[in-house]
Fold this sequence. Notes:
heterodimer; A: 250 residues; two-stranded antiparallel sheet; B: mainly alpha; 4 helices
Amino acid sequence: xxxxxxxxxxxxxxxxxxxxxxxxxxxxxxxxxxxxxxxxxxxxxxxxxxxxxxxxxxxxxxxxxxxxxxxxxxxxxxxxxxxxxxxxxxxxxxxxxxxxxxxxxxxxxxxxxxxxxxxxxxxxxxxxxxxxxxxxxxxxxxxxxxxxxxxxxxxxxxxxxxxxxxxxxxxxxxxxxxxxxxxxxxxxxxxxxxxxxxxxxxxxxxxxxxxxxxxxxxxxxxxxxxxxxxxxxxxxxxxxxxxxxxxxxx
Amino acid sequence: xxxxxxxxxxxxxxxxxxxxxxxxxxxxxxxxxxxxxxxxxxxxxxxxxxxxxxxxxxxxxxxxxxxxxxxxxxxxxxxxxxxxxxxxxxxxxxxxxxxxxxxxxx
Lengths: 250, 106
């Protein structure tokens, strides 16, 4: 993935991450098409964390709360998951699996707080960067189906670091809308697929393991490095595959 | 009055500490703890921000520890002062231990 190889890569909308991550061509946030979600409000907040993890059962705690939330989220969004999967020729279980794993857990608003905190810490970049105590704001994962802001930008052929403050905020807001979030994640999964299985149409359990692991661990790793830990993809294939199929059924 | 305040803060500190310890660190921790799908030995995927939720839950604990410490320094005397300082330190140790556990759970 050397910078010099960018000339070999077609900078088209559907060129793979390995190409477009090198020298993205600035453009608008093409996948941010929806401003207000048509899905019912499905926020995961601090009260949900309290119910799921902190409170004992006798005073309203529910250890099943997160799993039920994940099930409901995937079921509510199944039509969109299936249409996006068809658009990118991916098995719906892959997108549904990533969504199932990612939704819930941390309060969505906590990610926004984290982003603002990192943004403040990095206000003096690059001059004061050695004094910062947090990671770059682009490394913040956000959206219900959590995806790093820099990855979300990459899927649209953009470099998060070079975006204007307005566009960074637009991207942040864009990811809070489920339709945009899922569309970006679907394209990112397609781009991850293209790294190891370019133009392969049959995506089976092995491919889901690799693509899932890359979603969690990054697109830069070699296949050999990815194979060392495929726990993310394994979970989709071994633990929730049938569950996802049931949730996706109409 | 100082004694009542100490006991109030102590109870608050214990509740906050229990909440901190029950809060998840790695966001994929449920792969081990979920009653239906969890597997105790499951290898957890990478969570770059595993410290985020513990940090938010640690804020009340640290605030209570600071309150008890201030109370010990300015209002309490003798054994009660020593006990308050000890309790305050214990709360901070609990916070550090939670981070150590959370950030190394993979």
